[in-house]
User: Fold these one by one.
Assistant:
Number 1:
Amino acid sequence: MYCKLAFRNVKKSLRDYLLYFLTLSFAVCIFYVFNSIEAQSVMIKISTSEKEILKTLTQLMGIVSVFVSVILGFLIVSANHFLIRRRKKELGIYLLLGMKKNKVSRILVIETLLIGVISLGAGLFAGIFASQWLSIFTAKIFQADMTGYRFVFSSGAFLKTLIYFSVIFLVVIAASTFAVSRNKLIDLFSAQSKNEKPAVKHPAITIVLFVLSVICLGVAYQQVLQNGIMRFDWVLLREVILGAIGTFLFFASLSGFFLKLLQRIQGYYFKDLNFFILRQINSRINSAHVSISFVCLMLFCTIGILSTGLGMNAAMEGNLNTSMAFDVELYTLPDRAMSISDDLAAKGINLSEYSDKPYEYTDYTNPSILRSVIFTDDLNSKLGADNFINNIEAPLPFIRLSDYNALLDMRGKPVLSLKDGEVAISYSLGSDNVRSAIEETWNQTGKVSLPDKVYTVYPKVLSAAVVSMGEDGNILLVVPDAMLVDGTGAVTAGFAPSESVLQFNCSGDSTVKQDDLVSRLEVFYNDAGGADLYSIITRNAQEASYAGTKAIIAYVGIYIGLVFLMTSAAVLSLQQLSEIADNRQRYLVLKKIGADDRLIDRAIFRQTAIYFMLPLFLAIIHSIVGLTVANEAIRGLGGVNASQNILITAGLILVIYGGYFLATFIGSRKMIVREERNE
Amino acid sequence: MSNMLTVTQVEKYYGNKGNLTKALDGVSFSIQEGEFVGIMGASGSGKTTLLNCISTIDKVTSGQIIIGGKDITELNSRQLSEFRRTKLGFIFQDFNLLDTLTAQENIILPLTISTVNHREAIARTAEVAETLGITDVLAKYPYQMSGGQRQRVAAARAIVSKPSMVLADEPTGALDSKSSRMLLESMEKLNVDLTATILLVTHDAFAASYCKRILFIKDGQLFNELIRGQQTRRDFYSKIIEVISLLGGDVSHVL
């Protein structure tokens, strides 16, 4: 009999609380999808290094999932609390009819289990299909080809989802059993007719609080705009705390403040149901301003995290193409008897297996010529935090023009010709802004004095990625060969070789050959007991590390962003529905005294809309400030057009948040229309 | 004086062919403008169904209800809302005040719904509050008022839009005797001073004794009618008690 009761209740609830089921299923779906990333990799062609990165990503997702499950747990428990509260009278009737409390609990347990099984089933089903789509996204991030479609099912993610959500449902069962055992019969019955005393705040206090909140927010905005977010220190923390306090004060005082303000405009206040709506919202926000503030901050995080997560794709793509000149770069200190290629050949590695034309060259330094020759105090202060060459007291590396041109030639670029008595600055990191700042300074100064004579500086800063990314590669001075080496091949006095570099593109299947070379070099590395023979940079590793960073930020961002967005919308929606349920009598009174359906619909719509818009509105203002600052920071890294990501984020928010809003509005309407019929 | 309400052969059936309940079974009567009429009957006699039909909340199965010259059985739901709004005022047993609104805001509600200019609305609210002696509670919330004050606020809300007719459903049901007396005196005053037409549904003989005429309903049919005429309220009260004892007794005994 208990089963039958429970089944019927759930059937009824399915219709009433579609939103709750959708939220649960959506949560399960997201959880599965983001935990199944590793399994998806069978579909795409990736290198060993990228597989390693995916493994790290999966581990990271595991940690994030714990955090996410705690958030979802809170959401589900509070949603269940709302459902139980709505049914207090029903539970009271069971008790009144002589049913024992543990039997009533048993009904609830069966119900929760049923709800759990249905939503888990639906969510996993949706998740398994959604994860197929995510594979395409993964392939795009790693810029890899799909090896062909295969239906992917991750049993690990499946089990994990089952376990995590089972625990959540057990907590829900415990919570509802507790709720039943704690309640007295009289409370269960009088729950419906509780008369809420509106919290009346003194108008003067409201105004003071509102002004205070605006000041807090203003100062926080102004400071963060001024200081930026590049440095994470207590100043930033202070700004964040100030912003949070401002947000809380804002919602604590907002409704009272506007109520007082609008009451002065009687023509507006006493029009249609305006004052009724305002009073409803006022009492709503007064009792829920803490959760609304949290929703607002969560939405702010969502906007920030989602647009960053989505933005990673574009931000890293640029770097991937410019920073790696060749497939493989080997570099080492120049104190070897043999050249790198000879040394490798002695070890049994024949470079011709890997490449048609490897190229080897040497950088030189002169202990008396420091990087500050280029980065004068004037230029350095102009660049500020944008300059990635921090150590300007280190010796400035030099490269021979012939080496530089040979590398340019290998990459198929036009060679550089320097006039007599001319040197060129090569700076391959950072944004165009930095380069143009250097050019500007040096076009004014024009001359640099080096040991043998004074040189003119080539008007352009060289940015083509041809030199190694090793120690010296970021800033180099390209000089005539004669300055570094004399006719016999001996190094000029004062200069010394600082780094030997071997660069080449692999012939054939580059990805496989790179992996092969790395594994062969690893053998020697291990034999030498870990002594650093060569530093090796491969395009594989480089791409894996970029794509990995990209994937990690993108996936963690989208995962947390979606969960935050869903949670905040669900919290608002449940609160609004429970408010309508508690206050349906008010709407029925309105109907009886002649408000037609259109007017009531409009009242519910406006109330729901304002309730959903308020936290979003402040979150958007926060985000405008936040994203302005963030863009400033990203621009230093290489310049991104963030507008596209913000548009996608806005679209996602519109769909999910808007969907919850619509469902809430329709649910509220239904509740009032249906209750009227039952009356 | 013209007829404010004419009810002709109204029937209201519930249920289906096999199990038919005749809640109203051919009820006919009329009420003139400015009358204060009571409808009495035991639980289940059909008086609430009758009130619901008159107040357009429920629809009749057959028959006609004409209020102020308009046949309300032929209006659509939009027109019904408007009709309720402009022609009827309601007083409910449990006050049905909105607890988030002040007394003033509760009273002004019907006016703003009918989009009356706010200056006129505020003036009329003050006027009605003055008549019912609740001016000093206008700024208070329902939870700050006594039961009697709440019900007088509800009465003020019912008449503020100057309806053709005020429908009161057991208005004294939730009040103590002192508050009941004050409310009924207020309603009497509304009837006399403002010539409001009032239809009062009750099963309380004391409340009914304030009416000028009383209709008794039993099993969905009109059973008796009492007219106060020149009698004192006390005499009228005894008459009502007599009829009630008849109503409660065996039908065959009465007929």
Note: Confidence is low (pLDDT under 50) at residues 192-196, 675-679 of chain A.
Number 2:
Amino acid sequence: MDRIPILRMGPYLLVTIQVDMHDRLALTLQDDLTARISETGARGVLIDISSLEMVDSFIGRMIANIAAMSRVLDAETVVVGMRPAVAITLVELGMSLPGVRMALNVEKGMNLLRTSLGDGDAHATPREGGDDGQEA
Amino acid sequence: MPESNAGILPDLLRRHESEILDEWLREIGSLGLRRSDVIREVDLRTEAKEFITALREAAQSGSMDPASPSWKGVREFMNGISRTRAQLGISPSETATFVFSLKKPLFNRLRAALASRPDELADQLWLATEFVDKLGLLTVEAHQRSREEVIQRQQQDMLELSTPVVALWEGVLALPMIGTLDSARTQTVMETLLQRIVDTGAEIAIIDITGVPTVDTLVAQHLLKTVTAARLMGADCIISGIRPQIAQTIVHLGVNLQDVVTKASLADAFALALRRTGSTITRR
């Protein structure tokens, strides 16, 4: 059975969903990811769903769950690359994924992770993501 | 004389074309339908002449029913007249009276031709009345049709014009909403906004509702949907242009806008957006 690969990049884990998610696959990913986070002590998780074309309420809930679990394991999670059609579908399904951080693409997602973790190498990316935290 | 159901009208039209035309033009003048302010005398004359000619040609088919196929030319001609007159601001009743005024010259001709046979005259008059009435109604219908086309086109224009997404700054989009927000509009707005977020990589979208006349629970729900969808794409939304009255309504209705940043004016929202993107504006 195929699995969704989980790549390690420094203190971050990178999950790229390149195939259509079916329910079993989502459950496997949930197991794998939580295991990898505790194994590696990753501080940030980036989930790229830019290839995901179809979502239903189950997949929507899985995304929210995975994000919540990572947070419990003390890893910031950012979901990136949601397509417009997917976003509209989720909204129409009444799923706003509260508490999940979103970004437009991998680059912006990485910046978000770096700034929110207050990383030492944040200066390597001089731009963007700014001082969101200070804004009321 | 051939006696068909068309009566003697076709025959009269053929033999007395120019007399009928002259008399009709006089009649139009005396009824004050000349409208020399918008239609030139020459144009009116040409129009009337062409109309009579078209009538005569169509009448030769033997049928006096304007709905029949041989009258297609006349119908198109009348559509044209109604349309141009509607555009000139002439009322449909004036256009119809223009056609109805044809009755008098036609009746005069009939009376002259059938003076010795009153019974037949009455029949023929009835036929002629029916015929001219139908023509008049055609112009009214055509007038209405041309108005409807205009309305439809304007509606389309409004839908397209009312959902622009403009880039204010690098990474900042603005969405000035104008008019009522219904489900169809929301859908269009959402799709356009999300697509523009993808295209420009914007991180902040300002939804300005200055042009939205009323905000009820449904409109608020549509707004929140748009905000949520944008958030799922990684863009933050600021709602601006909330008038005092609308702020009161929102609170009275118990609409929860806690999770959304709201600003009174577009300028405030833009200033916040600039701060968030790390840009500053200084006066020189």
Note: Chain B is about 60% helix and 10% strand.
